[in-house]
Amino acid sequence: MTLSPGARDEASGDDDVPVPCLASAPTWRERGISMPMPALADEEGPRVDPGLPPVVDAHVHLFPDRVFEAVWRWFDKYGWPIRYKLHTPDVLTFLLSRGVERVVALHYAHKPGMARALNAYMAEVVKAEPRVLGLGTVFPGEPGATDILEEAFALGLKGVKLHCHVQCFSPDAPALHAIYETCARAGKPLVMHAGREPASARYPIDPYTLCAAERVERVLADHPSLKLCVPHLGADEFDAYARLLERHDTLWLDTTMTVGGYFPVPLPRQALEVRPERILYGTDFPNIPYAWDREIKALAGLKLAEDALAGVLGGNTLKLYGEDVC
């Protein structure tokens, strides 16, 4: 899970740490929030409320069985208890049978040399279930990274997923520029966990040294045609990411794990309301410690305008990936 010293220096970008001019609210660390976190015993519903607009989950994880099981072991020790330990076919059956219309399937390579196999796996999943919008991945800095992405797009994958914490890179690191250019040239969205949280002390590099909203703003400025989605509403820099949404037309945020009250912080309403057409409903399913529909219910209870709710729950995601709106 670690980079060589030279590659790590290039990926972390530590020689050019930005001034935190967007910072405002206390960090989660300052609030005393840390992993591991507990499970919740909340009740789950049988299916999506039929009175809601069509639901598309923009943040579902799918891995080969052995990778899934390794992820679950890590979360059980260092993250939170996973309520739904389901392999890929069962993940899709679970969500689609409960009224979720489509899912965006994500994965990531935690070391060099595994992205091609993961991307081939995802392409097979998409081929078998057309309601899945599958994304590819690559390990930043690995040889042939742009070729790996172009191959993934040729397989029919709709975008790319990267994870700053797991893959140990900063968003504005030089090793990422070619990846951004490849995504932008192909018109493929990039989903990048670039927020500082949820963070674990078990990551090889402290996410707080890698991630900052200012770093993401540099990416947006340097790559103005890149479509970038940051999960978790940019946690824990909610206000900073809301301001980025106001300034940049190529940024989206997803709601994963931030609107259901799992983390003991105020609801980030500003991030949800400043540009609701840029907000995507996502869950992290199956790797969650509470009911699968907890955040659907939370979003439905926010009393958003009808068109805004329809966009957040599904329409915005379909538009981002160039799909017909349900």
TrEMBL record:
InterPro entries: ACMSD (IPR032465), Amidohydro-rel (IPR006680), Metal_Hydrolase (IPR032466). It comes from the Bacteria. SUPFAM superfamilies: Metallo-dependent hydrolases. GO terms for cellular component: cytoplasm. GO terms for biological process: secondary metabolic process. One of its GO terms (molecular function) is hydrolase activity. Signal peptide: none annotated. Residues 1-20 are annotated as: Disordered. This is Amidohydrolase. It comes from Corallococcus llansteffanensis.
